[in-house]
Each structure stands twice: as structure tokens, then as C-alpha cells.
Write a structure and sequence with these properties.
Layout: H1 12-15, E1 21-24, E2 35-41, E3 45-48, E4 65-66, H2 73-79, E5 103-109, H3 113-117, E6 120-125, E7 128-129, E8 131-136, E9 139-145, E10 151-154, E11 164-171, H4 173-182, E12 216-218, E13 221-223, E14 228-229, E15 233-238, E16 241-253, E17 257-268, E18 272-281, E19 287-297, E20 300-311, E21 327-335, E22 338-346, E23 351-354, E24 367-370, E25 373-375, E26 377-382, H5 394-406, E27 411-414, H6 423-432, E28 435-439, H7 452-469, E29 475-479, H8 484-490, H9 493-500, H10 502-527, E30 533-534, E31 554-555, E32 577-579, H11 588-592, H12 605-609, H13 618-629, H14 636-660, E33 667-670, H15 693-701, E34 705-712, E35 715-722, E36 728-738, E37 743-753, E38 757-765, H16 766-770, E39 778-786, E40 789-797, E41 812-818, E42 821-827, E43 832-838, E44 844-846, E45 851-853, E46 859-865, H17 869-875, E47 877-879, H18 881-884
Helix pairs in contact: 5-6, 7-10, 9-10, 13-14, 14-15
């Protein structure tokens, strides 16, 4: 079909005059009085492209219907009642036709007289997913082939006052690429094959297209190969001058002085002499400097650099190390015929990836140093926040990132199989003090780096996104990809390809090295303002071994994917653990959002559809881990509860081991913080923003001061952990007690916690701790005390949870008004393990959860809810380990 729009193709209701408006782009970094950047907002409509192969089977999709921009085909179809909710029930298999179809979007807009009067105009498409053909007023405008790029097209003289029409046709990425992939005599490795027959399992296209990889399905999310105008369209217009970029480079920084270079990129229509002015505002908005200089502008785009020296600068620090101060830099360029202004807010900090070689020459460290201070990375990996990116709004991002900060995390890794997050994600990270490890968008498999056009496309993508995001102080690493080097070296594909075609195999690897070892490294070096580059995760930056515990960063999946018991975490001591994880289900309220009560069973089709590990059979692996440690659940609710307890306990064990191994180990990022949809996954915060037990545990095991009491082979090793930059006076207390509260042994000892360190405090054998007591009814309690208050607690058990002789819980609760919420006090005369509080369908948040109650000890929580006290009392349910699992054998 022709890509030129014809009058007959435009419906009468659209041609008669759509309601269109122009909205000023909120939060734009470049604001210019003689230029404008405005978001195109029109009454968009869409349909299945006439003549498409899917038209006969889905005629309802062929009629024009309202569309949202930004948006996606799937969400537009759902909003118009053409398809069911993609997240409820098990509709996934029946929706794969959408990814095989071509789609047409049409919008109409007017242009004000001032914009038309300017001699220069540019349409900016911030996100087209993915193979898009764009026409303006019936004439071809651009062809796009990269969802991650920003596409700019000059439209001088092509606009009119009213009735401008934009037509965008999206071609199916599967149908577009499949013939080329099938024609390859030998394939390169893809990721997850489709179980639905929409794409051959031996000819996957996902790694050939610059589109979010997770759209093709992952082991935590659905396969929805969507399309659409997923980010805003802007119209930029100007006269003789505009600022096209503004950045601040830190050349030197300490507590006494900051030496900065303000980089102003100016586009001038003609050569001219210009006055450049830089105003610097402190974090409170007060002017602290004003600099002026002359510049000789040539016609075209050029950089203008202004050096700035700030005495006693307020530096940006990760959370827990100092304030998150940010300065504002305003640039004004004046020349004959016009002026341009730009503004940029950023934080001042230095970042170093420290790679010291060990004294024996066998290992090499991996540590982030911020403003000269080595920071232990505590946190999690982040995946996309929705299967359909435009739905991940600022509110949802803030909920998840605040949950990370509130769990004492200081670092998040933006994983490479999704998309580069919106600016607001990084604004929130800047504000909260979260360090961001940013992958480029390569999630796995192998890329066709041997193709120069593919590589050039990726370089343009990288440049777009680095320049868009580089002013955020939260970004401390750009990483080439996720798991592609280790997949090639360790997962068998290289061996197979070498055996089949050694010349092609070498070509594939050399293309990989060119893309990830050279191209992306170069663009980060040129555009990244000093932020380090790392070629892959895990790796040692193209060293011989990719996933080495002695060098670089590590992904460890022998636990879970390899079925090893969680105790194996104590045998793995990496330099920086950037991935490890255990799966769990969200709570029953979240499960109820997609599964009816009769569908809530381990083997029901709906539950299996929301369990993506092992193609829906992941509950078998989950049951292995539950039953190995906790025994057989009594029912489905018990299965869900125990999955969450198992996850929290296991990740806590690993994270405390990593922290106790400092400074050999300098990071612990578990997989994963968030969810892309409601279902089983490795997340600690579910799709609806509800905390799993893991996030409550993380707040304790990532606390700035923490105790690590780790038992291995009958010996408990005690370490006192500190992220403080000065030594801390404290004491530790040991109590050994039975489950009825009788203290069998007690010991207190003063200690000084070294700054930024793990301080060993002792080793204790089981015999020493138990002294003949019943290991199935005894717990060792280690408390870290500062200022007379216990700030951290570690519990040590002497047998597997399923062997514990836990008493029947007898929990007393007291609810009373307190400030703008309630105070909830819990007591039990006997030991309670893994207590979980919930309030049914009421929205209520508690200050802590997933608790162990010691006999006779009162625990007071803060509770916030719009519900009244009586409703909360009636709704409150308490579940503990003794409730959920079968009784241990006598």
C-alpha cells in the first residue's frame, strides 16, 4: 500500500476539524523567548492498516477509533473495548496477532501565527515504536527504525495555519525482520522464544530490532509486541539563534572549590558576535555567580565554553552521605537578530569506578567512589514499570523509588532489556540520593554488531540518551549490556556457532567487541561528562572471563536458577554482586486483581499464566525452595505467604554476607525492585506498589548500622556493619532464649564500629550457644546497640524452619489514635516467627512488617489509613510461620 495519504483515506469526521491544541512542554531544560518548544497535542485516531493480513480475523480493529498519544496499540485497543484487559485472566495467547499487524495513526493540528512566522521549525518525535513511516500533510517526512532514539525533522515551509495532518504507520517488527533472519544460514542467539506460534523459535527477531527487548516476553512479564507513539511529539521553532544543549562538566571538586565548565551548544543561522552570560543559582535559588564573555559564532552548531569557579560548593551526595544539593545554571546568548536562553539543574559530584588490583595479582576490585568516599552499593535492579511504557507515570515511579530509598538502598541498576527511563525517573533519583547504574538497552542474546548500519543506529541512540540524561548526578555508570558477554562465553552459543561456521562466529564476536568495547565506550567518553563506562554486566570489561567472582561484577544464579539451597549464598563472595534473586508471589489482594477466587490455585491456568519462569512452570521451582526449608504449605494462601518468607530470608542472608565481606565486596544489588505487571517475580515491591516482606527486610539488612550474624556449618560469625564516615561507639548483646522467652545465655560487649567497614566481632559454635538446649526450640538473638537503643537485630536458628517447634501464636494487639494516624502495639507471650499484618481490602500502610516477635517484647508500629479504627480492627489479620506450614514431624 502507498505510504502517501490521500483525501479519501481521511474520515470526514477527522477532516471536518479535530479539536487540537498546543501545550507548552512542562519542565523543558531549554526555554527561549525567541524560540518555542511545544508539545503537539491532537485528537488522535488509529486503526488496523487497511489490507493487513490480520483484518479478516479482527475486523473490529479496522475501524477508526480514538487513540492516546503518548500511548500504545495495546492500550488503545483495550480503551476502545476491542481487546480485554491484557493483565486480567489469561488473554496473552489470544493477543499475539497485534504484534503481527501494521497500524495507522492519524492526528490533525493547527499552528499559531507566531510559530508560522519563524523561519525555522522542527518536529521532534521523542519515541516511535518502532518501524514507523511518518507523513506530514500527505508528504513523506521520515522513516524511523529505533524506538530508543529521538527523531528530528525540519518542517520549514511545510506547515499551515490549520488542518496539518500527521500520519504514522507502524510496521510489525516480526513481519519486517523475519524474512531476513530466516535467510541467515546460521542464527545468532535470541532471548525467550515465543510459546504462541507468532514467531518461529529458531528465528527470533528481538535482538535485531532496536525496541524494548521485554516486549518479546521475559521470565517475569508477558509477551506483548506493541507499537505506537510512545513519547511526546514536539514542534520547535526559532529565528536566528537557539541553544540546542546545555551541560555542566566538573573538572575538579572538593569541599573548598569547584572548577566547572559550562558547555553551551549554540545554533546560529549566520556568523555573528555574541554576548554569553552564565548565571549560577545555589540550591535555594540565590544567585552565587554571574559571568559574561564574548563569543564569535559561526553559522551552524558550535560549542561555547564558560569556566566557572565556585568556592565552598555544596556537593551532591548519595543518600546517607550528605545532602542532595543541586545548582541551577542559566545561559543567555545574545547576538544581532535575537537571543536564546537555556537552563539546567544539576548536582556537583565526582564519580570513580575504582579497579585496584589485589596484592596477589589474582583479583581486581569494583567499587564506586563518590566525592572521594568509597560507597558500598546497596540496592536492587529495576525493570520497566509497565508492559506499556506510557502508563508508567511519575506517581508510580515515585512510589517505587521512594520504597527503595525507604528500604535504605542507595543504588539501583536500570536493566538493559527495557527502555531508557523518562527524565522524571532521574529527577526523583537525584532528589532522593539514589545512585543509578544505567545499562544501554541490550538485555541478552547476541547483537548483530558486525552490521555497520546497526552499530551506527546504536551510536545515535546512545548519543541521544546520554545527552538527554547526563546532567543527572544520580547516574554513575553507563554499562554496555546485560549478560551478552557471559552468554557468549559461558552458555554454549559460541561453541555451537564456532562448530557450525567459525568464520561467521569470529565475525559475530568482533562485531560485539567493536560495538561494546569501542563504539559505546567512545560515545560515553565524548558525551558522558566523566561518568565511567563498563562494557557488560557481568564482566571484567572484556577480560578473558566474563562472570568472575574475583574480578568485576557478578551475576549469581546458582541459587534459584541452579536449584542450589539458599545457604550456597555464603559460599559466593564476589567483588560486586549486581544480580542475585529469589522469586515470590505478590500478596493475595494483588493476586485477586487478575485471578478470581476459583482461579487461585498453584496449577490453575490463570496463575500459571502469571508465572513466567520456566514458561509457566516456575511454581515447581518455587515449591522446591519452599518445601526444602519450610515444609509443605497448607493451602494456596500459605504457598503465597511462604514464597514471600523464603524470598526475604534468602536475600537477607546473601546481602548481609556481601556487606560483611567489605571491602573485598563493594555492592549488593538484588534482582529486582519492581514489577512490569501483576504476577510472580523476584520483586520486593509489586506492580501496585505494595511491599513484599523482602522490602521490609531490606530496610533492616541495608540499614546504615547493622548486625550480621551468619551461621555456616555450625559456626555463627558476627560482623558489625557501618556505612558511616566516622567510627561509631556501640555495644552488641547476645541472648540465647527458648520460644517461651526463657533466657538461657546472655552476653554484652562494647565495640567500636570502624567507618565504612565491616568489623568482625566474634565466632560462636552451636555447642557454645546452645549449651545442650533443644535446637528446634531455641533462637540466638544478636542486637547492635547505640545510644542505649537497639538499632539492628539478627536472629540465628539452629535448624531449618520446617523443623522448628513453634508455639501456637497468641498475639495481643492494641490500636490507638496517634497524630494523623494510629499506633498499633503488638505483644506475644511466646516467640512468633515471620509475622505478617494485612488489612484485607482496606488501604493501610504500616511502618514495619514481616516481623519476629520475641516473647514479652512489645513492638509499636505507626499505621496510616483513611479507614476508621473500628474498620481497621475488624480487617486486621495476622499470619505467622506457624499458621502457614504443616506441623513438623514428631
Amino acid at each position: 500500500m502507498s505510504t502517501h495519504i490521500v483525501a479519501a483515506a481521511v474520515p470526514a469526521w477527522l477532516r471536518a476539524g479535530l479539536c487540537a491544541c498546543w501545550l507548552l512542554l512542562a519542565g523543558a531544560a531549554i526555554a527561549q523567548p525567541d524560540a518555542q518548544s511545544r508539545a503537539v497535542s491532537a485528537d488522535w485516531h488509529f486503526r488496523l492498516l487497511p489490507g493487513d493480513d490480520q483484518a479478516a480475523a479482527h475486523p473490529q480493529a479496522g475501524a477508526w477509533a480514538k487513540a492516546s498519544v503518548p500511548g500504545t496499540v495495546h492500550t488503545d485497543l483495550f480503551a476502545n473495548g476491542v481487546i480485554p484487559d491484557p493483565y486480567v485472566g489469561a488473554p496473552e495467547a489470544g493477543l499475539q496477532w497485534i504484534g503481527l499487524a501494521d497500524w495507522e495513526y492519524l492526528g490533525r493540528f493547527d499552528v499559531d501565527a507566531a510559530t508560522l512566522a519563524r523561519p525555522h521549525a522542527e518536529l521532534v518525535f521523542e519515541g516511535l515504536d518502532t518501524f514507523a513511516e511518518v507523513e506530514l500533510n500527505g508528504q513523506p517526512l521520515l522513516k524511523a527504525d529505533n524506538s530508543h532514539r529521538t527523531w528530528r525533522v525540519r518542517v520549514d515551509g511545510r506547515l499551515k495555519a490549520s488542518g496539518n495532518e500527521l500520519r504514522v504507520v507502524f510496521r510489525s517488527p516480526i513481519r519486517t525482520l523475519l524474512p531476513k533472519v530466516q535467510a541467515m544460514p546460521h542464527k545468532i542467539a535470541g532471548n525467550y522464544p515465543s510459546p504462541y506460534g507468532d514467531e518461529p523459535k529458531d528465528a527470533m527477531v528481538g535482538n535485531f530490532v532496536r525496541k524494548p527487548g521485554y516486549h518479546f516476553g521475559w521470565d517475569w512479564g508477558p509477551r506483548y509486541v506493541t507499537a505506537g507513539i510512545w513519547r511526546p511529539i514536539r514542534l520547535e521553532s526559532w529565528d536566528a539563534l537557539r541553544i540546542t544543549d546545555l551541560a555542566v562538566r566538573t573538572d575538579a571538586l572538593d569541599e573548598g572549590q569547584a572548577r566547572l565548565a559550562v558547555l553551551v551548544e549554540v545554533e546560529a543561522v549566520r556568523a555573528a558576535s555574541a554576548d554569553v552570560e552564565i548565571e549560577v543559582l545555589d540550591p535555594e535559588g540565590r544567585r552565587v555567580d554571574l559571568l559574561r564573555r564574548k563569543a564569535a559564532l559561526a553559522a551552524g552548531v558550535q560549542p561555547v565554553t564558560v569556566d566557572v569557579v565556585l568556592p565552598r560548593p555544596r556537593r551532591w551526595w548519595p543518600v546517607g552521605y550528605g545532602e542532595q544539593a543541586r545548582y541551577t545554571f542559566r545561559a543567555t546568548v545574545k547576538a544581532k537578530g535575537g537571543q536564546a536562553r537555556g537552563e539546567r539543574r544539576t548536582g556537583l559530584r565526582t564519580v570513580e569506578l575504582k579497579r585496584d588490583v589485589d596484592a596477589d595479582g589474582q583479583g581486581q576490585g569494583f567499587a564506586f567512589v563518590i566525592n572521594g568516599v568509597p560507597v558500598f552499593g546497596k540496592g536492587a535492579n529495576v525493570i520497566p514499570f509497565d508492559a506499556f511504557p506510557p502508563r508508567a507515570d511519575a506517581k508510580r515511579l515515585r512510589v517505587a523509588l521512594t520504597a527503595a530509598r525507604d528500604a535504605n538502598m542507595n543504588m539501583l541498576r536500570n536493566w538493559g532489556g527495557g527502555y531508557y527511563e523518562d527524565d522524571v525517573f532521574f529527577e526523583i533519583a537525584d532528589e532522593l540520593g539514589l545512585l543509578i547504574w544505567q545499562d544501554f538497552m541490550f538485555g541478552g542474546g547476541m547483537q548483530p554488531g558486525y552490521d555497520p548500519a546497526f552499530r551506527a543506529n546504536v551510536v545515535a541512540e546512545a548519543r541521544d540518551n546520554i545527552r538527554r540524561l547526563r546532567h543527572h548526578p544520580s547516574i554513575v555508570l553507563w554499562c554496555g549490556n546485560n549478560e551478552e558477554e557471559t552468554a557468549w562465553k559461558d552458555w554454549g552459543h559460541r561453541k555451537q556457532l564456532v562448530a557450525a561456521d567459525p568464520v561467521f562466529a569470529d565475525k559475530v564476536w568482533q562485531g560485539y567487541v567493536a560495538l561494546f568495547g569501542q563504539d559505546l565506550r567512545q560515545v560515553v567518553g565524548e558525551q558522558g561528562l566523566g561518568v565511567p563506562y563498563w562494557s557488560s554486566s557481568p564482566s571484567n570489561d572484556l577480560d578473558e572471563k566474563a562472570n568472575d567472582s574475583r574480578k568485576g561484577d557478578k551475576h549469581y544464579w546458582d541459587v534459584w536458577a541452579g536449584s542450589k539451597p539458599v545457604q550456597a549464598y555464603l559460599d559466593e563472595t564476589p567483588r560486586f554482586m549486581s544480580e542475585f534473586g529469589l522469586q515470590a508471589w505478590p500478596d493475595m489482594r494483588t493476586i485477586a486483581s487478575f485471578a478470581r477466587p476459583e482461579e487461585q490455585a498453584v496449577d490453575s491456568p490463570v496463575i500459571k499464566a502469571h508465572q513466567k519462569f520456566l514458561a509457566g512452570e516456575g511454581n515447581t521451582r518455587l515449591s522446591l525452595y519452599i518445601e526444602r526449608e519450610y515444609g509443605k504449605p497448607r493451602d494456596f494462601a500459605g504457598f503465597v505467604y511462604l514464597s514471600r518468607v523464603m524470598q526475604a530470608d534468602g536475600i537477607e542472608l546473601a546481602a548481609l554476607h556481601h556487606r560483611a565481606s567489605r571491602p573485598y565486596t563493594m555492592g549488593s544489588l538484588y534482582w529486582q525492585l519492581n514489577d512490569v505487571w501483576p504476577g510472580a517475580s523476584w520483586s520486593s515491591v509489586d506492580f501496585h506498589g505494595r511491599w513484599k516482606p523482602l522490602n521490609f527486610h531490606a530496610r533492616r539488612f541495608f540499614a546504615p548500622l547493622a548486625v550480621a550474624a551468619l551461621r555456616k556449618e555450625g559456626v555463627t560469625r558476627l560482623s558489625l556493619l557501618s556505612d558511616r564516615t566516622a567510627p561509631t561507639d556501640a555495644e552488641w548483646r547476645l541472648r540465647v532464649m527458648d520460644f517461651d522467652g526463657r533466657v538461657l545465655k546472655e552476653r554484652r560487649q562494647p565495640a567500636t564500629l570502624a567507618a565504612l567497614a565491616a568489623t568482625p566481632a566474634g565466632e560462636f559454635t552451636d555447642a557454645e550457644l546452645l549449651g545442650g538446649a533443644d535446637p528446634a526450640r531455641t533462637v540466638a538473638v544478636f542486637d547492635l546497640i547505640t545510644g542505649g537503643q537497639a538499632v539492628s537485630r539478627g536472629l540465628v536458628y539452629f535448624t531449618a524452619p520446617k523443623q522448628l517447634r513453634l508455639p501456637v501464636p497468641r498475639i495481643q494487639t492494641e490500636l490507638a489514635a496517634s497524630g494523623d494516624g494510629y499506633r498499633l502495639t503488638l505483644r506475644s507471650p511466646v516467640f512468633v516467627r515471620a509475622l505478617w499484618l494485612e488489612f484485607g481490602d482496606l488501604d493501610a500502610t504500616v511502618s514495619d512488617n514481616a516481623l519476629d516477635l520475641l516473647p514479652g517484647e512489645a513492638v509499636t508500629l505507626q499505621l496510616h489509613s483513611r479507614a476508621d479504627a473500628d474498620a481497621l480492627r475488624k480487617a486486621l489479620t495476622l499470619q505467622s510461620l506457624a499458621d502457614a506450614m504443616s506441623a513438623p514431624a514428631p
